[in-house]
Amino acid sequence: MGGEHILETQALTKEFKGFVAVRDVNLKVRRGSIHALIGPNGAGKTTVFNLLTKFLAPTRGRILHAGEDITRMKPADVARRGIVRSFQISAVFPHLTVLENVRIGLQRGLGTSFQFWRSESRLSVLNDRARELIEAVNLASLEDVPAVELPYGAKRALEIATTLALEPEIMLLDEPMAGMGHEDIDRTVALIRKVAADRTVLMVEHNLNVVADLCDRITVLQRGEILAEGSYDEVSADARVMEAYLGTGHA
Hints:
- The chain has 10 helices and 11 strands.
- With 251 residues, the chain is of the alpha/beta class.
- The chain has 2 domains: 136 residues, P-loop containing nucleotide triphosphate hydrolases (Rossmann fold, 3-Layer(aba) Sandwich); 81 residues, no CATH class.
- The strands form 2 sheets. A 6-stranded mixed β-sheet has the order 7-8-9-4-10-11, with helices on both faces. Strands 1, 2, 3, 5 and 6 form a 5-stranded antiparallel β-sheet that branches.
- Strand 10 and strand 11 form a beta hairpin.
- The radius of gyration is 19 Å and the shape is globular.
């Protein structure tokens, strides 16, 4: 099933009208790991995420999932393979409750995705599983609260729950700590560690304390190319990495 690496890129490159946003990126994500993609602003991190989830087509290079070439696959087909992305801006339905949001994510299993006019009794069969996911992200006491009324950290936890509803094999998290205070960060780190117990996580993250605490392996991008890769201790000791960050005033 693709061996040690569940997700891999080979010479992945993306050009925009002569500007090279990503150049010859060879990324290998180990099965069952928490892998961080870091780098200064403009380093190409989000472009790599967009390429992996097929929101952009590469100019050249290949993307492999479990050893199979998915480079030309459509976004929906990539998601069906279990590669699911959680966006930097919280993507939930604001006027639906926590339970209703998670239940929508589960509807795919019934073949009734996003058919809001389905009867309550038809959808209630999903409640048990929805509540399991809500419990998993520590939102059980808030299941009847509309998403718009949730505190920011709870909204991000809900987004992770709706992502889990799609039964991902690989979760791609785009800056999951963005905009959070220390208390929310601590809770979210614990949550990611918990949900990563039986799946692979690839995350873009600016908070280096989080990366140091949470991630098994780190890939550092600069100007669209891989600058360094390894454990946090290895990459943080690399003079080129320090220069890249200190030279750009990273957030």
